[in-house]
Description:
The chain contains 6 helices and 14 strands. By secondary structure, it is an alpha/beta fold. The longest helix has 10 residues, at 170-179. Manganese (II) ion is lined by residues 9, 51, 53-54, 139, 166, 189.
Amino acid sequence: MKITFYGHACFGVEIDGTHLLIDPFITGNPMASHIDIEKIKADYILITHAHQDHVLDVEKIAEKTNALLVSNYEIVMYYGAKNLQGHPVNHGGTFKTETFSAKYVNAVHTSSFADGAYGGQPGGFVITAGDKSLYIAGDTAVTMDMKLIPMTTKLTAAILPIGDTFTMGVADAIIASDLVACSNVIGCHYNTFPPIEIDTDNAKKQFDNKGKKLTLLEIGDTLSI
Ligand code: NI
Ligand code: MN
């Protein structure tokens, strides 16, 4: 699995030539101005919830790539009305292809579109391909539901929000990494806007003090797991 960071909470995940794109929010992110969305490949676009900082570029990229949207029922219906194809799931359900599976899991957050439309209940994804599994928490507080994940899945890495204010912050993300039983954490949802600015060196140090690894990718960089 190759994970590319496109800023904020947007990641590309490449699995044997299949391209997944998570929560595309690029053109509205000044820190990601060097990313050309025309060049982003996507066979599937996975959407955790309907907030603008997770869906801004869904339509543009889906229209260009013909990617299949995978998200909760309400979000898939919302884009279905705009003639974008999707596959709905709901919490506990798994979307399966020959290459990967993506289970929609709980997140404690909210979910509404910028136009006020209901965006269903927010979630995260557990993506599994071969012997690798990646947890994408989405926007969430730390929640005991995270404990359910390691009961079925040994995670290789976990993408957790660490910016506080709208999601958990660093201290709670460390607890979340305990709950999901994964010490290999990739941080997201920090420093994009003033309310979620954090001290990244201190964040890494806090994870390090607990014997855990926090990776903070530069926008555009790729990590193999
Ligand atoms: Ni959100
Ligand atoms: Mn968000």
